[in-house]
Amino acid sequence: MSLKDRTLPEVRRGKLKKLLSEHKGLRIMEAHNGLSALVASEVSIERQSGKTVEFDGLWLSSLTDSASKGHPDTEVIGVDSRLMTIQEVLTVTNKPVIVDGDTGGEALHFEYLCSKLEALGVSAVIIEDKQYPKRNSLEPGATQLLESASVFATKLKRGREVLLSEDFMIIARLESLIANQGIEDAISRAGEYLEAGVDGIMIHSKEKTPDEILSFLKLYESLCNELGYRRPVVCVPTTYNSMTDEQLFNEGANIVIHANHQLRAAHRAMEQACKTILQSDRSLEADAMCSTVRTIFKAVGFLDAKDKDARYDKSAMHAILAAAGRPPESFMEAFGDIPVSELIVAGKSVLQRQAEALNQAGVSNLVAVTGYGRDRISYQEAQFVHNTNFRAGNSLHSVFCAETYMGSGFLFVYGDILFHERLVSDLISVREDITLVIDRSLDAQVKRWTKPNVDLVAAKADSGARSLSVGPIPVSQIGSRISPGEVTHEFTGLAMFSERGAEILRTVYHDTRRRYAAKPFHEAENFQSADINDLLQEIIDRGYPVYGIEVNRGWIEIRDMEDYEAAQEMLKHGKPSTAEIRSIQAEKVPS
Ligand code: SPV
Ligand code: MG
Q: Which domains does the chain have, with CATH numbers?
């Protein structure tokens, strides 16, 4: 079951009445369990005219409910068992549901049935004017005993009297044609049931041609004219199915129920698959007759569940830290021959601080891709992957040394940034496939414009005016050479790739790697010298959405001595609050 299409009883119950009040013909499909309800709810097609058509609601057939339980349709399946199926269906769809109530049992039983169905959020019950226990209407020669019209009308009235809402509909089903009692009997009973206060009439027939139904529909209109009011009519064209739904609507039907088709289709497919497996002595040949396992997983919400697990189970996600690069000369002069990850900022190494922030946000699987000075790294609570080629490439190629950890989505982290755990928590809760944390305070950070290789971003920012939107915004450009008029943000070096995002990243990486081996690739001379920004730009250019979540604080990069001293200052009194980071960053802005 997917958790997406749920609704509440009071929201769903009135949907049928509302659709009917919009004066369009309603197409209703049978469902006999959760899966068939999902299929009927999800399926839609586009007609040649461009019009999209879907089913307007579901029919809880007694024939298919009992058949799916391996029983005949003779009211031998009890109300509690029927209610279980009804609940199963109501749980997985938000479409209105019409329940086949058989004869409704004796009047007292019908009162209880109405009250339970109404409480569950069912929109309508249809009961047939046969004697309990009824026999299905479609089998020629089956005994069909009609109830006396007045007894049935009393049952209908008693059902109405227990209802608590105006939303729930009681529809009377005429079995006169099934019991060979003729159209006059049907019309006379229709009149009596309408007078008893029913919300609609269903006329049933098992003829192959629609003639008797069409005659009934004409007489029904005259009856309603006489009465001075009209209630909707329901048809079930199982046998006279040469008529289209539209034709039936044009003849006066308001609801057309396709009463058993999913069950019959499933039965034939099941039988064929079983026979094929026995014949072939294996299942290979039957595969083509079956939906794939993944299709079923998708239909019942397992893929959604898996997605959610990945989003919320941060412990399963890897953070890949690109920590292979050579430090700037100024660091070498000041601190000697150590990688940036090993720089001590207020008592802790950069890598340790990164690991702590990630851990606090729930990401505990760290993969650090090392290169320069890897033997000098003292923090050991991560997995290490060595980029032997670190001199030739940069962050992009480093991160791909950890490609095996990307599978179910991952976090990308520059090796030379410090960040607050809040940024990570926000990032891992997004739904988009590729999301960057982007800083919108670039304009305030005047000095940053003068620095080389700042990761600039052009994103669809709002005008700066206050806005209700808080979600990620689309990124259109990323690189260090975006024209100043277009720059809106700076990429912080934190990014999140969902499972699909990682798949896109990997596919585009391997494809471009071959094609641009010796050719300029976005801002890089060739693929070998490309960085993550070049690949992200390629991804954007290929039409995949890349999003940014905006921040203006909570991170700092350490690329030169000035950055280092600022970080040292921020952290010397322990972990800074986001407000402290902001104020110290603001102090850096020259007047
Ligand atoms: C059902 O679907 O259970 C019905 C319609 O009542 S029929 O089987 O045609 O009687
Ligand atoms: Mg039935």
A: 9-42+53-259 (3.20.20.60), 269-300 (no CATH), 307-577 (3.90.550.10)
